Each structure stands twice: as structure tokens, then as C-alpha cells.
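Appendix B. Raw example, untouched.
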Amino acid sequence: MESGQLTSLAVKLTFEADESGVTTLRLPDGYGSGRDFWKNVRDLEVSGARVVDTSEPGLRKLQARGGRRIAVRYRIVSPLSGEPRIEDASTYQPVIRPRWFYAVGSALFALPYARDDAPARFVWNGGRIGMPAASDLQADRGEFGSLSGAITLRDVRNSALVGGWDLSIIRSGVVRVASIGAFRFDMAEAAQLSERIVTAQTAFWGDRPRPFLITIVPHHASSPLSTSWQGTGRSGGFATRLTPNVELRDLTFFFAHENFHRWNSSALGGQGSDGRPGFWFSEGFTDFFALRLMVRSGVMSPHDFADVWNGMLAAYAASPARTLPNGEIAARFWTDPHAKRMAYQRGALLAALWDWKIRRERGGALSLDDLLRAQRRAVAARDPSDQTPAFVLFPKIAAAHDVDLTADIARYLDRGEPIELPADVFGPCATVQWREQPDYDRGWDVAATSRAGGVVTGLREGSPAWRAGLRNGMRLLERIAGRPEDSSVEAAVRARAGDGTEQIYRFKPEGRGRVSLQHMTLTDLGAGPRCREPGAGF
């Protein structure tokens, strides 16, 4: 603390030296597109061992007699200045503000090398200054018992920690929601929604409920039209960063996606040393099952289910990355937003296509649900030395059930050919058809408007937005309605003119070109309970 404000986080580690006499300590190494987090370490001190520098700045060699107690102390600072922004989210750098902080475990903790399965214990001592904190490493002594004693160093690395004097913690059943800042939705409702999602997904896998933590902290956008939610699955929950204008309806799919990461891909084989080639599986399959289980459990209506799928199909049709081979998608994942989204979209479409093929070829006796459960059982039973990643293991599990995906993998992943969904891919409950519509165009220069702080720039005269009354120089205040990349959905923005008057402008974001895309329409059966039964439709 400096002048009553938080400036860094103090970390103390104690552990026993390796029997070899040399313990390798890995400093915080980062996550996502963030790297070299050892640069955030200050005042590193080691007692109980002699420190030997290495050629890698993120490693330390500690020489001590086997079994001797070693203590390591250091501080973590944040490289970010000012309020966290959308642009910072994918780097997962620690955020340390005067009154609050947020960090994932790989940004915070140094850990002894090659001890992932070693048991661990976590203690937060910020109570000395009256600062509460929440982590999925803490004992949760609620109805479902304690997490204490069950965590490993792998859990420490894959944890999240949030704290501050304004921290709010709300519980609903197995779920705790720990948040910083003000948002448009009610946190108690968010906790209840999360518990319904957690319950449905836990039942899908046949597991018992266990404590689950969701952390929510704000990040900010340069444009008031930007709405962003970003998150990552953690060992005992997931960590999220939201723009303050996010609403609860935006979070339903997002929460379901992040919770499904508790199983995909860690329980299905993991991501391997470089998860990017398999993000179509870990992210795209997660999207597919998040939607499937929400509509089956009644958390999401069939109409909302179709609406999300149609948004995905529209974005897929318009994406400049649609025909990129999977190798290119992987290489660009952290630097090209189109490539990043394509991994999700392509994986979800493949999951839908393969589920349809499996059910059709096996007369409904087998589905994608069954293959994923079989993969989980196989991973639980395999030799620990077998580290085959989940996306590599999945086609092998399918082949063991007489499902050959070789040709599809070569076609849609290796070569990047566009995916076309069959009309009855969702059974009798919906129809997927081709249609043509104008391409998506807001009418103004999006990049220039963002650089101008939301002041409309480059608005094309005669565009739908111009005909609705929007003009260059107006300041955009809020996005009311619309769906990115889909010109069939009416857009609405609230803007302020030079004289201070505010108005909502509604228009169809239709460009001059044409785009062909697939679109889902619910059938008469679509809203019925039959379609939400496993294997029957959705």
C-alpha cells in the first residue's frame, strides 16, 4: 500500500526442495496472448536455498538439500496504467487498481517445476487491512462442503483471484459470484442463472455438484457501442471481464460456454503444449454443447437458441477467415479476431454436422453426447504418460465407435472448405435453409469513429443510417439493438447531436453487396418439449 492505495500484491510460497538437490522455480509465465509475466515480479527473495541464475529469465534454479524447506517472497505489479480496456483483456495481465485487483493464477504465482499434481494450500491475508478477496482456491464451506485440501498446484496455476474494498460476493446454491464495479444486471439474478447452467451441465456428465466461483470485473471500451464479455475457465470456476453495458441476456450463452470448459478440454484429454490447433474442439464444441444443454434444460428458449445460431451462421458466412486452413487459424488465433472467431464457429458447425451424421447412421442409438462421455471415461482410465490432446483423441474415440471422421477433418479443417449444414441437422424441430440478403454495413467508418471516441466519422450519404437521420459529427452514446454481421436484424443506436439533443436512430444495416448464408427456422415442433429430449432434436 502507498498513501492508502493498493499498488502491488505480495506473494509468499513455501515448499520442500526436490530430492535431487536442485529445484526449478518457474516465475509467472502468462496466459492467452500474454507472455513473460516474470517481468511483473519485484523484490524476489529466497531463503533456504541458493539461487542460481539460468539463461531463461523466467526460471530460477534453487540449490538445497532434498526435503529442506524453501521460502520465496516477491511482489507482483501490473504493467497496465489506468482502467483496464477491452484491448488488454486477451493478455490476462494482472490488474491492480487503487481499490481493487484481479489476476489469474498463471499471472500471479511462481511454482516449482513438474509438480502439477502436488497438493497445495492457499491463504489470503488481506484481511489485515480489511480487504476481502475471493478465489476458487479458497475453502468454500457452504452446503456442498469444502474445497480445502483438494487443490493441487495445477489448480493454483489455473485459478483466479479478485479482491478489493468494494468486492461483492453473492451465493446461489453451489455458485458464488464475486464482482467489482456496477453493471446493468442484478448480480443475484446472475448467480441464479449461473446455478441453473451449472446444474444442467453437471447432470449431463453425471457428476455431483461442487463449489463454483465466477469472478466479474470491468473493462472499458473506447466506443460506447462496444459491448464485450471475455472470460476463461478456471479449475473451480471461471474468470470474466465485462464492459459495464453488458446485460444479463448477453451473459447466458457466455456463462454456459465458460462453465462447460470445466470438462472441455481438461477432462477430455487437455489441450497439449500448444492448444491453438485444437481450439475448434475446445472452443467450438463448447459453444455447441453450451447451447444444446441450455435449451434442453429450459434455461434458453428455442427461439433464443435459434437466434444465437443464426447470429453464428451470419458471422460465419461473412467471415474473411472462413476458408483458412486450421493451421492458419491456429497461427493467427491471438492476433487476428476473424481467425479467433472462426475457431469457435467452425468447431460448432462441425459438432452439429457430426452429431447429425452419427444419429442418422446409427439410427439414433449413438450421438455426439455419447462420444464425449466415452472420451471422458477413456481419459480417466488411460496411463498418465499418455498425454494425447483432446482434439487428437476425439477422432480416435469416434473410430472406436465405428464413426470415421477422417475425410471431414481433411476437408473442413486441413483444407478449410466451407461447411454446409443439412436442412434437418436439428431434427424435426428446425429447418436450416440457404437465403440471400444484403451484406452487413453500419454505414460509417467504424475504425475512424472508434478513434474519434464515438463521434460518427465517414458516414456514407444515402446509407440506411443516413436515411434514418444519423449524421457525421454526432456522438454515439449507446447501442440499443442489432446483431453484428446480420443485416436482416434492425440496428438501433442512441446518439447526441451538436445542439445536445439525443435521439434513437433505427435502421437496417444493409450494404450494397449481397451475401448467401444459412438460416435456421423453427418448425411447429420447435417449441415443444419433445425437441429438448436428448437425441430427439436440439
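End of appendix B.
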